[in-house]
Amino acid sequence: MTDDKPRIAVDIGGTFTDVVLEHGRKQHTIKVLTTRPDPGEGVLDGIDRVMTLAGLHPNEIGLIIHGTTLATNALIERSGAKTALITTKGHRDAVEMAQENRFEQYDINIDRPIPLVPRYLRLPAEERMDVNGNVLVPLNEDSVEEIITTLDQHEVESVAIGLLHAYVNSAHERRIAEILTEKRPALTLTLASEVCPEIREYERLSTACANAYVRPLMATYLQTLGHALKSQGFTCSFLLMTSGGGLTTLATAMRFPIRLVESGPAGGAILTAHIARECGIKDVLSFDMGGTTAKLCLIDEAEPLKSRAFEVDRAYRFRKGSGLPIRIPVIEMVEIGAGGGSIASVDKLGRIQMGPESAGSDPGPASYDQGGKLPTVTDSDVVLGKLVPDRFAGGNITLNIKKATEAVERDIGQPLGLATEMAAFGCSEIVDENMATAAHSHAVEWARDVAKRTMVAFGGAAPLHAVRLAEKIQVNQIIVPTAAGVGAAVGFLLAPIAYEVVRSRYVRLSEIDIEQVKRLFQDMREEATVVVRQGAPTQNFTEKREALMRFVGQGYEIPVPVDDIVLKPGGETHLLAAFEAVYVGLYGQTIPGQDVEIISWTLSLTVPNKVTARSVETISNGAKPSPIASQSMFDPGLSKSSQVPIYDRATLQPGDRIAGPALIAEDQTTTVVTEAYDLSVNSLGYLVLNRREKDPI
């Protein structure tokens, strides 16, 4: 990460695999269809193509960074390994009882998330620790022998070991792992005390089960891909993007693949935060729309919101509690089934429904002309004239306008008695409205407002829908960065090498022992250092510490920074002041006279990426470039289609200005500018769309 050799970033999406090769300030990008069932084929194909574009050989590459949705897809599609859970006797049903609440109060047919491990494979071990890690019941190793018989009987491939209070004392978990390794070395093992050493039994067990469920698949995939790259002559480091926005090593990713679940979307958030810093913008909304999903993330003070928990495979799209909880460091965002491949249909009430089912890469939308028959968002965009057919995916796919029109007319227009163009507009409106609803819901959850923010739009489909979404959520400015169509992969190249460690050690602030806290952080630092040095053998780490705190009696904690002064004698006074400052910032007041408790502690080490600092310069030449062609496009503001000019983004220069309506075509996406917006190119080459207040420029 410190040399100037070319670097490659690869992002596997549900429809496309994006590849970016960066050499100095120059970037080469490519989109290829994601290959199923082996995504590695698409990765190798994309790398080969981008290497040909750049005219480079494998031994010239300095680093390969990879993000993948493979673990996410395995969890959603339930295509992971046959997994068992070993847990404390009497607690096998914790993953089924969950929170014992109803996330949808008035739905009598509520669908609860189904545990990854069925009850007959949730196996009890005789042992018990107390809350402080003291042994109440010693481990009965005979009970482990009985478990092995059951594992053999059901041909289990992977085992999660999650015992009560093992986050404080993991001795029994480690002993069970030793026995299984000795007796059944082919088994893949996941210890809850390693993957999620935190309180809250349900979330810890759910995370351990998820890691065990995807680990054989991910380990095989990553190892196979790593060997394939070496066989082709790549001798450089191979790092993986994590959900928390940092890079980690192949070995760590194979051990904890659950940390990769949101790796692609995290890259997009990193890109947006970088753009916010470059452009000096305080509050930003990241909008990433690809072929399968749309992701929206709030960026405040050029930093994405972060969390320690999220849910995967929600039965109810926006309803918290309807998915499988995963406790890992993650960039907080909302993700919905709204992408270019989202399938359009008409329900029994005569309403247009968009997704969440997707046509994916195979067979893909009808306009791909490779067997797909159902209308999708992409097909609607083709009918509305928002895509330039021969420029789609860098010319690798020529869109078939006739088949797109037939699909929309047959499945949407005819059932609703609408003209084909209005049927396509209806599909586009519904998907944009779904994204607007998701953006508002996400912002409300975090006590934020999306209105008046600047939107950064990237991904293959986002620049097509950015203007209409912006109008719905009252955003007046949109930025479309360079290489927007492969934005998440570009974000990988900006990410630092990082690793976070968490420990649950309960203590009341009135009883805290600062020396004990220092020793705890020292142990956490040593663990994180081992991981980070594998990817960056350097001492130049940035260290961040936090305490997860709350008033005694509360159910949820908030992260509070632990500065060096807190770890000195009398540090509890400074920690209390830091907690009250964060608490007042969130809730407006504190609770006088109430003691404070710390539930967990976190420590992260980061090796900052070496990114050349740039900033926007004022350019006022106001040049108006010449279009390369024109085509008919439907404009919702005008409620009709009209001929609009098409501009080639590659020929646009800083200072150029264009009045909407217009289309800006580039290899990996198209930016739609409606009649309500004006576009300019800033000094960094980014397209900046501003809502028009006066006459067109």
- Overall structural class, as computed from helix and strand content, comes to alpha+beta
Describe the main β-sheet briefly. 9 strands, mixed
Instruction: Give the name of the CATH architecture of the largest domain.
Output: 3-Layer(aba) Sandwich
> Rounded to an integer, what's the Rg over CA atoms?
26 Å
| CATH top level assignment of the largest domain | Alpha Beta
Distance between the first and last residues' Cα: 44 Å
How large is the count of helical segments? Answer: 16
Task: Describe the protein.
With 697 residues, the chain is of the alpha+beta class. α2 packs across α7. The protein folds into five domains: 134 residues, Dna Topoisomerase Vi A Subunit, Chain: A, domain 2; 134 residues, ATPase, nucleotide binding domain (Nucleotidyltransferase, domain 5); 88 residues, no CATH class; 107 residues, no CATH class; 63 residues, no CATH class. The model has no long low-confidence stretch (mean pLDDT 89). Strands 13, 14, 15, 20, 23, 24, 31, 34 and 35 form a nine-stranded mixed sheet that branches. A six-stranded mixed sheet has the order 3-2-1-4-11-12. The protein is built from 16 helices and 35 strands.
